Structures are given as C-alpha cells and as structure tokens.
Amino acid sequence: MRGYLFSRLRQMIPVVLGVVTVVFLLIHLIPGDPVDIMLGESALAAQKEELRRDLHLDRPVAVQYGEFLLGLSKGDLGTSFRSREPVLREILRRIPATFLLAGASMVVALLIAVPLGILSAMRQHSLVDHFSGFLAMLGLSMPNFWLGPLLILIFSLGLGLFPVSGYGTAGHLVLPAVTMGTGMAAILMRMLRSSLLEEIHQDYMRAACARGLSRRAAVLRHALANSLIPVLTVMGLQFGALLSGSIITETIFSWPGIGRLTIQAIEARDYPLVQGCILFIALCTVTVNLLTDLLYFRLDPRIRHE
Amino acid sequence: MGDVKNRFPSSLLILSIAAVFLSGCSPKPPVEDGTLVIALPGAPSNIDPRLATDAYGAQILQMTHASLIRMDAAGNPVPDLAERWEERSPTEIVVRIRDGLRFHDGRRLSSADVRYTFEWILDPANRSPHRATYEKIRAIATPDSRTVVFHLSEPFAPFLTGLVRGIVPDGSRATGYSPPIGAGPYRVDDFQQDTAIRLSRYEGYHGGAPGIERVVVKFLPDSNVRFLELKKGSVNFVLNGVDPDLIPPALENGNLVMEEAPGSNASYLGFNLRDTVLSDHRVRRAIAFAIDREAIVRTLWKGHADLADSILAPAFWAHADGIPPVRHDPFAAMRLLDEAGYRDPDGDGPKPRFRLTYKTSQNELRRQIATVIQEQLRKVGIAVEVQSFEWGTFFSDIKKGNFQLYALTWVGILDPDIYHYAFHSGQFPPRGANRGGYRNPDVDRLVEEGRREPSREKRKGLYKKVQVLLARDLPVFPLWINRNILVRDRRLSGFVITPDENYTSVKEMVILGEKGEGK
Predict the structure, then answer these.
(1) Summary mean pLDDT of chain B
(2) Per the CB 3.0–4.6 Å rule, which of A104, B58, B266, B456 could disulfide with A177?
(3) What is the pTM of this model?
C-alpha cells in the first residue's frame, strides 16, 4: 500500500508539471499584452517598457519558464499582475468558497443519485425506474446557464426562500449547489443503476437470496458495495471537475470561486495568476484521482491482494 | 431493510426543514433598512485611486475618495477638496485646499497628502498606470499646509482633468485589495473581492454627511441576475446594467422606476486607412451612408441611444454644433462606390463589389450590431465577414492595425485632448490610439495648439475645426452615444445622472417613505 502510494505520488509530479508547462506556453502564445491591459492605452511607451522589464516579460519565454519553475520549487507562485497580491494568497482566498460549493454540490448529487439509483435498479422497468430515467435525462439536458436563473426565479423570486446571488451564508450556497449538483446526480444515478443491475444478476446474489436473505437486504448489504467501484471512479472525476470551479455557475451566483478567478486572470493576461490557478486545478484533479484509487483498496479486497 | 426504507423520506424531510431554516424568514428589502444596494456589472481589479484603471473601480472611488476637483455634467471642473485654484502662469497651477479636512480615520488632510499622492504615482518604482497623465509635472511644492503648487514642464491645458484623482494619506502603501483611507462621503467597511463592497456614511465629509447611511455595491456580472436581484428588491439601484429588453419587465410591478439621461460613451466604426480600399474617403463615406443607424438604435438599443456626429457628447463643452449629419442613403452609397471605381459586377446578383472583415468583441449585443451592419452593407454590394474575438485578442488586433473595420466605444472622455491621442499622426500605436493610421497636417496642428491653449473658448474653436475636418475625412464613423439608464427603487431620490456615469451624487441621495418624506 505504502509503495503504491509513493509510486502514485511520483507519477503526479510529471503530470502536474506537464499541465503547467502546456499552459505556460499557451498563455504566452495567445494574443494580448498584459502590459497594455494593466497600464491602459494612454501609458507612455517608456513606462510600458519599464513595466515589461519589471515583470520580466522582456526576457525569452524559456528564461521566464525557468524562473517560474525556480519560484515554484521554492513555493513562490509569483505576484498577480492585476491585483499585485501574491498568487498563492489570491488562490488561498478562493479555496474556502471553491471547496464549499464543490462539497455541497457533491452532497446534492449524492442525495438525489443514491436513493434513486438504488430504487430504479431494484425495481427495474417499474414506474420508479422510468421516472428516475426521465429525471436523469432532464438533469443532463438542463444547462447550468438556464437552470441557475430558473432556480432563482422559482426559489428566490417566487418563494422568497433563498438569496438571488452572493456568498456568505448557508442560504447563499443552496441554489448554486443544486445547479451544479443536478447534472452530476444524473450521471451518478445512471451509473449506480447499471452497475447495481450487473451485480444483482450475479450468482452470489442468487445464493444470498437462497440462504433466506431478502432481496433488499442482499442488495444493500452485498451488491451495493460491489457496485460502487465504477461509481466511485465517476465521482472522483466529477469532484475533481467541481474543484476546478464552474465559470458559469460562479458567474450567475456571483460566487467567488477559482473558476471565475481563472477566467478573469486569462482575460487580463495575468500570466502568474493563470499559471497558479491551473496548477491548483491540476493538483486538485490528480489528488482526487489518487484518493479515488486509494478508496478502491478499501472497497475491493482483490485490489489489496494484487 | 425497514430502516433503509424509512431513511429516504426522512432525508427529504431534513432537506425541507433546512430549506425553511436557511431561508432566514425572507428579510425585508434593504431599502426599508436604509441601505442603498447598487449592482455593478463587474468587480474592480483594484480600488486604490493611484492604481485603479477600470470603470468599476473609478465608480466606487467616486464614493470613497475625494479629489482636488471633480467634473460637472458638462465637463467643467468644480471644487471638491480644493477651495479654489488659479493658473499663475501656463506652467504653474496653484491649488488652495479647504480648511479642516480630515480622512475617514480622523487624520488631517493637508497639502503634504496631496503631494504624496501625486509623487507616489510619478515614482516609477510604484508602476502606477496613471503616471503618463502627470508626465508634465516638473515639481510639486507645498508652501503651507493648504497650498499645493504644481510646476509643469510646459503648458498643458488638460492638466486640470488630471486633478480628478482620489487623495490618500501621506505614507499609504499600495496593498492589493485593502484600499487606502480616503476622504470621500463613504468609508469602506468591508471589501469582498468579486462579491461586494460595503460602505458606510462618513459623518465628517466636508460637503456634509450623505443622506443614506449604508451603501452596498454588489458585483453581478450576469445581466439576468442583475435583473432578478432588482425584481426581488435585494438590489435597488442599477445604472446602465439592465439589458434594454429587460427594462419593461423590470418596471412591471411598480416598485422600480427608470430614469434616462444623455450619455457620453461614443460607439464608432473604425476604418483602417492603410487598407487599399478603405484609404479612399469615398468608400468610407459610402459605408457611412449605407449604415442605417436609426434602425439599429430603434431595434437593438430600444431607442436608448442618440445618433452621434462626433466622438464628443453634445452636452460636452467642446462638442461642435452644426456638423452636417450623415443620413442613411443607400443610393448615395452606391453612387459613391461607383465613383470610387468599385462597380457592382452583377447588379443585384450575389457578387460583391469588394470584401471586408469587421472585428468586434464577443459581447452578444455587439455581435448582433455587427450582423445588422453586415446585412446593411450587403445591400450596397459590400460583403462583410464578421469576426468576434475575446477582448484581449480583439484589442490586441486593433492595436496592431490588424483589421479593416472594427467597432469600439470611447469611454470616459474628460478632455478634448482625446483628439491628439486618437487622430494625431504622431500617435500611432503603441504610442497613441491613432489605430487607423490617419494623417492630416491640419488636424495635427490644431490638436497641438489645443493642448497648449489655456483659454477654454479658444480651445473650443480649435476643436470645432478638428471635428469638422474629421466629419469630412471620416477616419472613424461616429455611430451613436448610449443614453444612461438608471433603474432604481421608486423610494430612492436625489441621484443626478451625469453623462459620464458618475456616482458622485450618491451622497445626495435619500430614501423616501411611502408618503414621499425623507427617511
């Protein structure tokens, strides 16, 4: 187990470095000058040159990359061009909101997906199964830019239950979490259903029932745990995506998450901040994937033995 | 198994209870608590007056930081922290500040703070984006605590507009999201990056304490959300942030009212004069004739814009009256194109006279405008390919001269010296904003005289000539000037809409009771 963990951690390093390198090159390739964006058009040419020199933008891209890696090795992500704050502080400031929304969205997704997924597998082709299939289709078809305002219209304007947008109280969290959670719930629900159906038709389930265990008990005690591996894989991937932030949901609900910060950084050609955000997103993704893999150990004894 | 069965409804029950609990018993609208809630379409990247460059930052600073002078609706300087000012000579401006001024934290505001603010901006180490504005300052003297003397290296008429800059206390460091103390009508209580800024009334403001005790400025980038917040009453003041289509439904329930006033942001169509086709002024004029601006204003802007004859708003002091308007006349356009040698190869057939590209941003309304102009130009035989880009890419192309046609808006014009910056032949990018490559020695001479001439009346005459020449040559075609639209709670009163969308008069606002009395 320990050896596996170390080997996975070693694998993470080239993945993260690869992502950061590609982003470094891409952000320097796209048109748009950060100095122009920072100083505005009316700045003096000499002033622009000074700033370019200050920010080391006058150096070859390879040198800038080397400096970036050197800073990274010391834990220094640089200073945001836009706000003049250290990039790390900018990102750390967004982490609570990002994690809160990602966690709440996952909870919403699980609250919908787990009961409906189990029910529809246990009662295949029943009304419940058809209904949950319809809900999954609905959840997948509704884009967040449409669902978000619709939820605001119903629950905020119509029923007056939640604030329209913002951040700070538990009430502010509900609508963005539901907006982000529904699509994920649909995927998890269908995944759980199909995975569970596969297990339900295994011999060990017939044997359990033959020993006198009720079908429901057999499903919940034996089949459910065995069907969780593929579900967990999807959950891990989805949670990684949630931690990368959702630009649309964060914009609609004025949520100060990492997604909005990334897009603002790209618009401002704030190279250090873009790199910092992408590094954070890459780290989140690989970490969640690693944690998912580690959970396999706990859930599947066969993997432990391998 | 029975346990499991019962767990599903109970989780739903918990959710329902949580929903009711979280709703917090639906608080009453903030206007009833004496709070003005403004929505801005974006968050400022900085709210330090020495560093802020975006419009959102500038609008917040108009409430939190006082400057030596400010501009009235016609662009005339009026006193703010300054009691008076005089030009002892064209290169020496003496400003006398008011007595008894204090910052929000109680510190006295003196001439030393004024000098510090401008010297900080001028210090290259501080990398202020506003340094160029003050490049003509040779020295700043403070003979006493209330007098500041600006010594300029040469006469520079637009210098006074540069004094619209929030003053910060001596020794204030630039610290990212923590704004320095100001002396404006409101103090900053809390700044949540990307979410909101909370302000409270500064009782010691030199112009008298503001009428409204608390102001919250929310940063809401989504126009639908701004509309929904207004409808709910959780936002009660939006200036130029409600889509024209959403204004009628916003006013439906009678809680909100709309006010409209002339604006100053001029949209224009830019031509690349280095282009073989567009270098011919007849082609540029033909394009102007072919564009039905009235139809665009009527349908896409829902009438909330005025046709422009110049990049200066009609209310601005330097605007030239009597410039002959360009009326929509497709036949005249076709005649001019024929004259210029661009005959239609197949009459009404599909072949165009020539092809052009039109660059614009990814803003939905701008793209719709581009599509309409594309269709209008097609009718006179010009094929247009519309290309829309993300802002950084679009602006980079415009600055590099990598365009044929483009549409942009001039925002925040405070002085007619903009003509030097945008049309002088020495101001090609990256030095200036003469993006189309326009050259006219007469315009060069007039704009150079204009920036040296201290007399406003004489400057007005000079810039009138400039505007007449530009209307003849059409290096850009002024399209329209958007009107400023305020949607507010009907109980809010006292805000004066200025052409430059200034928030200075927030301090004059009051919240009226149901019967119209102040609260």
Answers:
(1) 88
(2) A104
(3) 0.81
